[in-house]
Specification:
The protein is α/β, with parallel strands linked by helices and 339 residues long. It has eleven helices and twelve strands. The chain has two domains: 105 residues, Nucleotidyltransferase, domain 5, CATH 3.30.420.40; 166 residues, Exopolyphosphatase. Domain 2 (Nucleotidyltransferase, domain 5, 2-Layer Sandwich), CATH 3.30.420. The C terminus is likely disordered. It holds the Pfam family Ppx-GppA.
């Protein structure tokens, strides 16, 4: 079947159209993006502004029409951290539904982590053993570990690259002192979460997903996207440290000129690199493999599974009791960030 996945993130709205069947490899047919920066379209009370909501509605309407004209049998529309955190998310979602006919579902941070892990597991297979995965978005950081398709531990922390750029690195370039302060703070914030991930067991394979990690790997010498998704790409801790020293002294305009960094991602790539560095250090990881699949592919795979077994698409049964500390969301609020 042909499916459309509409992903409303902190920075962009992305429509992915794929041909997919259960047991097969989803084949991308088209990809359409728009930069909305919803996380920046908040007023002082934490509500998405009318202008921000209007832009979201017009974009969702446009992308829904593209999905229909592309022959999609179904459009799966999801929102992550920017809408999830907004104080008026229910009102905005109602406006989207009433004016576009699209039911935009909000993914919890934990389900975001679970679905990303599903995509990573399917990409690397059972022979990979225990996988630890790190995923950096605009608003949140997801960490997970598991030996099955359902992770033993799935965490979501408010440590996204865009969020930390706004709170900690307002200057351009950010300056050594701010970078050092953010480094120290991230080490403290990640201590508890990393201990929980490591307590699940030592990983056989350490993986990183998300566009942030793909950009960081490219900047440290990994193959370009044009080489195809099956080319092995890695990111090392030593290469990342050298990269941070380099890009943290550059302006946003200069970073946008680097191969592998888009103009949209250039403002937050320093914060993303610092989160990646802190995560790898906290988890005692020296090298990560870059997985080309992430949340959107996880949504597609889970949709195909749900068609077969009749389970709910978003609320995925993970075998936990609901009262344990695993599969939880953790807040990473700023303590001393930029005012």
């Amino acid at each position: 079947m042909r499916l459309g996945v509409l992903d409303v993130g902190s920075n962009t709205v992305h429509l992915l159209v794929v041909d997919a069947r259960r047991g097969g490899h989803p084949t991308p047919m088209s990809s359409t993006k728009a930069t909305l920066r919803l996380a920046e379209a908040l007023d002082n009370s934490g509500k998405i502004t009318k202008r921000g909501a209007d832009k979201l509605i017009s974009t969702v309407d446009e992308f829904a029409k593209i999905a229909a004209s592309s022959g999609c049998a179904e459009l799966m529309a999801f929102a992550t951290s920017a809408v999830r955190d907004a104080q008026n998310s229910d009102d905005v979602l109602a406006r989207v539904r009433d004016q576009t006919g699209v039911e935009l579902q909000v993914l919890s941070g934990v389900n975001e982590s679970r679905l990303t892990f599903l995509a990573v597991r399917r990409w690397y297979g059972w022979s990979a053993g225990r996988i630890v995965n790190i995923d950096i978005g605009g608003g949140s950081l997801e960490l997970c570990s598991g030996v099955d398709e359902a992770p033993d531990v799935a965490l979501s922390l408010q440590l996204g690259a865009g969020r930390l750029t706004r709170e900690w690195l307002p200057d351009d370039p950010p300056g050594r002192r701010r970078v050092a302060m953010l480094r120290d703070w991230l080490q403290s914030e990640l201590a508890e979460a990393s201990a929980e991930v490591l307590a699940a067991g030592p990983p056989d394979l350490t993986v990183a997903s998300s566009k942030t990690f793909r950009s960081l790997a490219r900047l440290t010498g990994a193959a370009p996207s044009g080489a195809g998704p099956r080319v092995k790409r890695t990111l090392t801790a030593s290469g990342l440290r050298q990269l941070i020293s380099f890009i943290s002294r550059m302006t946003t305009a200069d970073r946008a000129e680097l191969e592998g960094v888009s103009a949209d991602r250039a403002p937050q790539i320093v914060a993303g690199a610092l989160v990646a560095e802190a995560s790898m250090r906290a988890l005692s990881i020296e090298t990560v493999d870059i997985c080309p699949w992430a949340l959107r592919e996880g949504l597609i795979l889970r949709k195909l599974d749900s068609e077969a077994d009749g389970t709910a698409l978003v609320e995925i049964p993970m075998g936990d009791s609901g009262g344990e500390s695993t599969n939880r969301a953790k807040s990473g609020r700023s303590k001393g960030g930029a005012r």
